[in-house]
Automatic annotation (TrEMBL):
Family matches, as Pfam families: Glycos_transf_2
Coiled coil: none
SUPFAM superfamilies: Nucleotide-diphospho-sugar transferases (SSF53448)
Domain of life: Bacteria
Biological source species: Chryseobacterium ginsengisoli
Protein name per the record: Glycosyltransferase family 2 protein
Gene3D superfamilies: Spore Coat Polysaccharide Biosynthesis Protein SpsA, Chain A
Glycosyltransferase 2-like domain segment(s): 6-130
Amino acid sequence: MKELISIITPSYNSAEFIEETIQSVLNQTYENWEWLISDDRSKDNTVEIIRKYNDPRIKLQVLEQNGGAGNARNKSLERAQGRYIAFLDSDDLWYPEYLETMTNFMQENNAELAYCNYSRCDEHTMEPILKDFEADKIVTFSNLLKTCRLAPVSTIYDTKRVGKFFFPVKSKREDHVMWLNLLKEIPKGYPLKKTLAKYRMRENSVSRKKQNIIKDQYLVYKDFMGFSTLKSLYYTANWAVNGFLKYSKIFN
């Protein structure tokens, strides 16, 4: 029997997009999964939409209070029983072969972590608005310090090999901190050079407002990695330049 995959999803006011996301999971060719959705006290009808789907693999938890995406992901991770951990935000999409292709790739390469290409799409039409983000490099702790190549929508890791890794709840850059902590424990993550996911680029997304989160990124290095001020500034500068290249239409 195929290994169980735990899909980790935080949801908050996702009614506009959540049905597309649900359908992309139900369409997966790999069927042995559990989907752990932690709703962060949505004020719209997100919860009602999720509850319409009568699939025992979909396991919804409505949190007692709003605690942010990192906390919601942690609540799902606490309940996860699968060997593989996959992340899918409540407005993003997977191609039908995502889970199957990724886990086959990991097994073939004896990989503890793998990531793939993903499309960067308009939030309403889901048509690409930038060149696909390419999984073109082996990821290590060292090169992940300078730019975060790992996106939740396109990355899977193996808990049998590395255990579970949780998100810091006091950082607005919780994804990057979690990936760095994971890459401290393993030598590398492997790139699969195939587009298997769609990332919805929303205008109000915190991750898009680079100019507003320089301080938060600096704290990734200063507070969470324990680097000196000078070293933290060095890596923050690298991250800022690479972030511009990652999202600028001039270079894509």
